[in-house]
């Protein structure tokens, strides 16, 4: 049965807030995973740019004694070369963790705000929000 307009607005705000929180949780998890996995690339490229004479030309002791322009260029190239595989690893880790924690299932459709009782459609419709309530289809992720 449909909700009243005031109740519908309140439920819409609640569902919108919950979806925003789930989105921020996903974003935070992705940021942490990508930062940890890409840390070697970040460090190598940082030291390469810091010690190159054409870029920053730091006066640090390790830049003068260990790294010259050729080795700084090699560090920059190495950092960008190892970035691609590490991006793939970070994305695989995030997807596996999101699947295991079922984070993408936490998003709620706004049509739940329109009707009482949790069902958002009539039996037989193929809407996504009905996967739990109306249709008896197989799960996409087993």
UniProtKB/TrEMBL annotation:
The entry's keywords: Membrane, Transmembrane, Transmembrane helix
Any single Gene Ontology cellular-component annotation: plasma membrane
InterPro entries: TMEM88
GO MF annotations, alphabetized: PDZ domain binding
Compartments, as annotated in UniProt: Membrane
Membrane topology category: Multi-pass membrane protein
Domain of life, per lineage: Eukaryota
Residue intervals passing through the bilayer: 21-49, 74-94
Homology family: Belongs to the TMEM88 family.
Protein name: TMM88 protein
Gene: Tmem88
